[in-house]
Amino acid sequence: METPYLIGVDLGTSVVKGTLFDAEGVAVADCTYPVALAPPELGSAEQRGDEYYAATLNTIRNVAEQGRIKSADIAAIALAGQMAGAIGIDRNWNAITPWFPSTLDTRYQVYQTQMVAQAGSRLTQLTGALPITAPRMLWWKAEYPELYRRIDKVLMLANYVAGRMAGLSGEVDLTWFGLADTASRKWSHELIHAFDLAPEKLPRIVPAATVIGHLTSEAASACGLASGIPLVAGVGDSVAGFLGAGLVDPGQLIDIAGTFSVFALCLDSYVADTRYQMLQTLAGPLSDSHWYAMSYIGGGGLTHRWFCEQFVSKEEEHGNRVYQWLDAQAAQLPPGSEGLLFIPHLGGRACPPDPAVRGTWTGFTWKHTSVHFYRALLESVAYDYAEALAVVRDYLPASAFREVHVIGSGANSILWNQIKADVLGLPYIRLGRDSTATLGSAVVAGHAVGLYPDMAAAARRFATRTSEAEDTWWPRSASHRYYQEFSVAYRQAIKDLRGTFSALRQIRPFDEPGPA
């Protein structure tokens, strides 16, 4: 092997992205392939495992061709993917269910409620978060028993694709699921027994940097590569993004401004948020004392797109610059959008879990324009982050937080970065990379094959940013003080509207009466 290269692949909600890196963490080539996700109907969202598999192979082929490298120079491949969804496979690794993406598909929630009622805070104490995959298993078992019987394993999306690429036939590797004793990084027999789920349907748990198999001749042919390239277990997409952004030291904060709006920090001990259920704790790949705690808004980025589709006219559109155009208009408005609040949980709130919550604008008058509504949308995400940060400080009162790193497509919004800095009272720093999830996967892959003995050191070295003057947004003290009242009002609005949300959820869709 003359010069070793690594391929990291991120299986996102709307695209599969692959990046070819050299051993110094330099991106040599990258590629994205779209995957179908129609705007989710209320409560329903499904994607096809076969489509993700094909998109992954095409992505790998494309980056290898762009980089003009030999197969022998690819040291390893690792995949990251959406976390907390579910896909069921049979004994031959055929997907016999769709991929149900995370919280976008909410048909599991009645079973999640049942699990909470049965196990109480013990559930969060053990798992680190309310389960999302296990309730889907209960859903299948109760409503589709024949399908449940046929399912051999219940997997995460990236595990399904990687296992198929490696020709596995009954096991898969992952670090985060929904029936685990997460602090011990193993399955909880207590929970499995309590909910009467079949333990043989659960995949085995191994460290992220484990070679699970090698590229089969069939998959290699589709990729235009030689067979035998090591495939590494990898991590979930958020964890990969955290690692690729250099989030390896306790107390570091990050904002992933993507399809899901994610606010997270790095920890050196396991924290189960049993008091607020605002934080979800994930195992980090560095060691048994490496953890992440995160809070997120389901479909936060989808709401952005939805707003543009519904409220920006064709005459106002500027192609891909529509967000910049909206930002320029919204930047002319004062903090607080002149008394307008938005609740961004269009498909239910994930952290803390409350499926009845819906999107709401409140406080508008005749003076408010569509631009006010847009700015309020941006501010609402910052208010949600402020609530998460308050919970973090309650659990870790001695911690001092210096700054927030931001990645994802939303990090390109100068206005949004400034709003978040003002609301949180912390500097916002945009990293110079937009491929942190694929980089994190590559770091894990490189460690698995011996290129990076110290994953943390490699991640710190590779996590770069551009000019500090250009890419740092400092909190403005007057704006920060002013925003505090809005943060309080945001929390109160969600609390006060809970009864209304619940009442609306009970109303069935109108059934047009037939002719008399």
Note the gap between the termini: 79 Å
Biggest sheet character = 7 strands, mixed
The CATH superfamily of the domain at 5-238 bears the name ATPase, nucleotide binding domain
CATH fold-level label of the domain at 5-238: Nucleotidyltransferase, domain 5
CATH class category of the domain at 5-238? Alpha Beta
Radius of gyration: 23 Å
Strand order within the widest sheet? 15-16-14-13-19-20-21
DSSP strand content:
15-25%
> Which architecture name of the domain at 5-238 does CATH use?
2-Layer Sandwich
Q: Tally the helices: what do you get?
A: 18
Given as residue ranges, the uncertain stretches (5+ residues, pLDDT < 50) are 170-176
Query: What is the overall pLDDT average?
Result: 91
What structural class is derived from the secondary structure elements? Answer: alpha/beta
Silhouette: globular
What share of residues is helical?
25-40%
Word description of this protein:
This protein is α/β, with parallel strands linked by helices and 516 residues long. It is 38% helix and 17% strand. It has helices at residues 49-67, 109-119, 121-127, 133-143, 145-150, 157-166, 189-194, 217-223, 237-244, 300-311, 322-330, 370-395, 414-424, 436-448, 455-462, 468-471, 477-496, 498-506; strands spanning 5-11, 15-22, 27-34, 74-81, 87-89, 153-155, 173-174, 180-181, 186-187, 204-205, 211-214, 230-232, 253-257, 261-267, 280-283, 291-297, 341-343, 360-362, 404-407, 428-430, 472-473. A 7-stranded mixed beta sheet has the order 15-16-14-13-19-20-21, sandwiched between helices. The relative contact order is 0.12. Residues 170-176 have low confidence and may be disordered.
